Amino acid sequence: MRLDKFLVDCGLGSRSQVKTYLKKKQVTVNGQVETSPKTQIDEKKDQIAYQGQELTHETFVYYLLNKPKGVISATEDARHKTVLDLLDETARHKQVFPVGRLDIDTHGLLLLTNNGDLAHAMLSPRKHVDKIYQAKVAGVMDEADMQAFEKGIELKDHTCQPAKLEILSVDQAARTSTVQITIAEGKFHQVKRMVAACGKEVTDLQRLSMGSLVLPDDLEIGTWRRLTQEELDGLSVFGIPLA
Length: 243
Ligand code: URA
Description:
This protein is an alpha+beta fold. It has 3 domains: 3-54, Roll (Structural Genomics Hypothetical 15.5 Kd Protein In mrcA-pckA Intergenic Region, Chain A), CATH 3.10.290; 62-125 and 212-238, Pseudouridine synthase I, catalytic domain, N-terminal subdomain (Alpha-Beta Plaits, 2-Layer Sandwich), CATH 3.30.70.580; 130-210, Alpha-Beta Plaits (2-Layer Sandwich), CATH 3.30.70.1560. Helices cover 21% and strands 27% of the residues. The protein has helices at 3-9, 15-23, 89-93, 116-123, 143-151, 190-197, 229-234, and strands at residues 27-29, 32-33, 48-50, 53-54, 62-67, 97-98, 106-113, 131-138, 164-171, 176-183, 201-210, 213-214, 224-226. Strands 5, 6, 7, 8, 9, 10, 11, 12 and 13 form a 9-stranded mixed sheet that branches. A 4-stranded antiparallel sheet has the order 2-1-3-4, with no helix packed on it. A hairpin with a 7-residue loop joins strand 6 and strand 7 (106-113). The radius of gyration is 22 Å and the shape is elongated. It starts with a helix and ends in a 9-residue tail after the last helix. The relative contact order is 0.15. Bound molecules: uracil (URA). The site of uracil (URA) has 8 residues, from helix 6.
């Protein structure tokens, strides 16, 4: 691999930026200063450092985003800000994409990666990956709704798999509820449509978890971090190479 490509892949900056770092003698290969972007390196064997810090080459990258409302779960859009706009240069260079979609007005946990096989496995209906949502609802959800969820809600075009509805609180005076909903599917507007099928309306929707990934309490809305090793270990159940 060319040295400049390696440096860009490591998230150091654009091709022209890394060229400047090379010119300034800030990059070493096996301890020797290298200034030519064309130098061929072996990313598995050679030790590459920038300003004395060793760089490691990653094929796959994993980002956990606390998606805010108003941003779309796509990689590009002519009109709206996308989740990619919230990540860093490395994410864009590595061409990460969201694993499944959240509606523009849904907030919460979103995984982004460039590991297509993992995304495919996590989204496969056969894998039954549970997604947990917290919803604010206009209307009082009750025992009958819990039973309907458990039985499998009938939508116009789809009978939902059995799902779990937990009622966290009800404000009888305001006629509102806060609920937690667990589904293993990912149909378009599924949670909103399931609640609508009970004659009520979701007014706020937050995703709390997807499989073993849980929205961290300290991850501010609109911010992200890379998955920890522990979180990656949790994804090994899919049997997909992660590195
Ligand atoms: N269900 C919905 O209705 N919307 C989402 O964004 C996710 C699940």
